[in-house]
Amino acid sequence: MIQTAQDMKTYKKQLQESLGNSFLRTSLDNFGSSYKASRAKAFENLDFEDMRNGIAESKDAALPRLEELLEQFTGNAEKAGVKVHFAKDAEEANTIISDIAKKGGVKNIVKAKSMTAEETFLNAHLEKDGFKVTETDLGEWIIQLRNEGPSHMVMPAIHLSRGEVAELFTTVTGKKHEPDDINGMVKTARRELRQAFLEADMGISGANFAIAESGTIGIVTNEGNGRLTTTLPRIHVALAGIDKLVPDIKTAFRILKVLPRNATGQAITSYVTWITGAVECGASPTGTKERHIVFLDNGRLTLAQDPVLCESLRCIRCGACANVCPIYRLVGGHKHGHVYIGAIGLILTCFYHGVENDRAIIRNCLNCQACKEVCPSGIDLPHLIKKVYRRVLDADGSKPVKNMLLSTMLRNRKLFHFFLRRAYLAQLPLSGGGPFIRHLPLLLGKEHGFRSLPAIAKTPFRDQWNTLQKQVSSPKYRIAFFGGCVLDFVYPEQGKAFLSLVQEQGVQVEFPMKQTCCGLPAMMSAEEETAKEVAIQNLEAMDAGKYDYIVTLCASCGSHLKENYPKMFNGEPELESKVREFASKVIDFSSFMVNVLEISAENLGSGKKKVAYHAPCHLCRGLKVTEEPRKLLTDAGLEYAPAEDEDACCGFGGSYSVDFPEISSEILKRKLDNVEKTGAEVLVTDCPGCVMQLRGGMDRRERCIEVRHIAEVL
Amino acid sequence: MDSERLHTMKERAESVQAVVSHVRDMSEVIRYTIDLMHKQEGSVLAAPGLSDHDQVFLWKECEAEAIQLLTSPLRNHLSEIHTSLTYADCGIAETGTLVLDSSSEDIRIATMLAETHIAVLSASQIYADAVSLEEELTILQKSPPRYMAFITGPSRTADIERVLTIGVHGPQELHILIMEETEK
Asked: Is residue B132 included in any domain, yes or no?
């Protein structure tokens, strides 16, 4: 049975168990790498961006008119001899299906894979009513025999080893199965399940598409069980979420072109079946198939009305958001979802399976944007996850202490900065004046010891500004420098390095003193009101009209200012245009150097050192900047040694690393292992947050690989 | 016939483990089928949907080669079919896909339950991509009942440790015989 943790303490315990499962980790790791390669190959010479925009557009057009499409579908399907049902919730769907079976005198039921049936826990309901239900998708059959839920939407048994399956098959069939004879196990399933097909009176499937203009359903499968399920038994019932309705075959084809490519790297699956109406069926007393289609609402129609969260209904169930998620890769689907898993699972659980099942898992997101990058329907998954997190907090009516502290601090810049300055003094006994805190503060447990925490700088950047600022005569550009908290209070030297690079290039730099935290930490904690309040403070502190650019050295701040600010004030006319102007001027350090200043190699120091690079999530995926930092490194004469998974998250994620240190440390470990393999002397990145995580981790390893912000090595 | 399209069809189908050959006429199709069945030690053939003329021809050959040719309805022979021989209505080169109107139950049973499926595809019926079939499919679906099958390679699974394994529920082999002439 599915046992999703309903509180953090239980969840932490479960996570520890998964982290200790070395098969799972190796398996998901191999999967992650091979998926990346096969997906890239599947989209070769295709315009993924264009394809995903097409899907997003069609889905967005269909969502507000689902009821109308349902009516059209029903009319066409019923004309063709199919009975269409509408179920408002899971219980109703299960009852409808059970009643069909009872009325039809059914004993044995075969099922093809359906996530919607998993959602309603249909099997349990049918078994309780006395029917024998056999899952026929190999993976589903395996987990049915083990009484488990799926750990992946496309590969439900990916968490199991061949050894575990062999043992299971040996028990079930009474015949010895060897772990390395996978072909033999598949043939066992073929034999056993063929018998189930021949004995079944009813077949239940899902549907990937429900085409309104003709009343057709489309089913996408590889094994062929979907075809047998819809052909051999005399009764067929398809259960589909109402969000599967599309107006026409054109839309279905648009989705079909992307779905298998994004799910498994296949151009198309072995079988795609399009069923319209009740075809002939020799097993039926009437000579034609008894066919039913059950559309499930279960909250979808309400969700479709939500201006922001409706985006989640664009999902086409490819499972890619799990495939690329660094957390899923570590803990597996059973610990990163409820019935639906991965990023979309964290979102949908709240609506389909209740706040209690989402309470713990919804917090387990790094905001690394890897899921968003591969989503074939353009769902802003990390953004929606934070929105849902807030819903969970509101529903529970209690917030973590961290949220209260954060909100109180961030809203009041002077208090916040006062606190940071005091922190320098408070930490002295722990840092001894060095760059790291050598003893963990008492409130942090030993699981936080995977990285050294940096010491707060003695003099923050803002307090040095008076001595650093310079008047440039007839400047080429006038820019505002957005420091960000980490640079300002922990690594002011990065800001100084930046100034010395650009001031000599004829850039007039200003540091508006009233600037404050960008607000991302508040957003990450689902404190959107605070995030907005802080955003307004920044908008007021920096009059965008006065500057050519607003430059930041922090990828996270940059992507928050540029992408989330306009999103937060969307539909607020008095601020919308001001925010847009502001966001349009925001630029990251590397892009500013390469694209605006067009800095040439002779203006950069010649480093000679061997360097590795870490691509911050919010730079390479958030701001989509990939070429510029690498160009800067090579132009500066540095020997750039590419590392494996350079664009994988470092595991920081702001307060994520404090909430989930056990996961953060594992992700960091992989990152540092990959960097070490390059033999680099310096690890370069362009986000002070990443510097903090990476440098802290390197310090614990007692290795001599330096970690630097890119501005410091040029 | 666009030779590039033909080439793509063959290449894509082979990349998903279909066996693709060229044939000139129906007698070559029947020869191919019988040889393959002998090789695989299969003795029961289902060949629904063939034209009357081809049926008669096939009947004679099967008799001579000691192969049992099943008669309709195939539902009476669910566990017997070794090989099935059918036409494909058209092909989609982009993905190496066969399109079979499977509204007839015999076609469905033959193509789903056989160990080996042999499909005859007329070269002139190969489309570049699925999109070029949109209109035709829409028309067909608007005259129900209809069961249209896209078939791309043999049945496959990767559900145990993601190891690609062929032949879990559907045919374990898919042979595509491309016929250059349009005769059926």
From this structure: yes
CB contact (8 A) between residue A273 and residue B169: no
Which own/partner contact pairs does A413-422 have at CB distance under 8 Å and 24+ positions apart? A413/A514, A413/A516, A413/A517, A413/A537, A416/A516, A416/A517, A417/A460, A417/A462, A417/A489, A417/A516, A420/A456, A420/A460, A420/A485, A420/A489, A421/A460
Identify whether B127 is part of a domain: yes
| The pLDDT of residue A260 | 97
Question: Is A248 within 8 Å of B135 (Cβ atoms)?
Answer: no
Q: Is B49 touching A (CB cutoff 8 A)? A: no
Q: What is the tens place of the pLDDT at every residue in A49-88?
A: 999 999 999 999 999 999 999 999 999 999 999 999 999 9
Contact predicate A317/A153, CB 8 Å: yes
pLDDT band at A604 (very low <50, low <70, confident <90, very high): confident
Which domain range does residue B130 map to? 3-179
B63: in domain: yes
Q: Give me the interface pTM, i.e. the ipTM.
A: 0.97
Closest CA to B143 of A219, A248, A276, A212: A276
Cβ atoms of residues A507 and A626 within 8 Å: no
Number of domains observed in the structure of chain B: 1
Cα–Cα distance measured from residue B176 to residue A306, given in angstroms and rounded to the nearest whole number: 49
Q: Hey, of B160, B166, B172, B173, which one would you mutate to test binding to chain A, going by the most A CBs within 10 A of its CB?
A: B160
Residue B91, CB half-sphere, CA atoms under 13 Å: how many? 28
Question: Which residues on A lie below 8 Å from B141 (Cβ)?
Answer: 211, 214, 216, 249, 274, 276
> Would B184 be classed as within a structural domain?
no
Number of CB atoms found within 10 A of residue A377's CB: 24
Q: Which of residues 89-128 of B touch A (CB under 8 A)?
A: 94-97, 103-105, 108-109, 112-113
Given this model, what pLDDT does residue A443 score? 63
- Say if residues B29 and B23 touch (Cβ distance below 8 Å): yes
- Asked if the Cβ–Cβ distance from B169 to A224 is below 8 Å, we say yes
Mutation to test the A interface, candidates B169, B172, B176, most A Cβ within 10 Å: B169
CATH code where residue B70 lies: 3.40.50.10420
Q: How far is B29 from chain A (nearest CA, A)?
A: 23
CA distance B20 to B97: 12
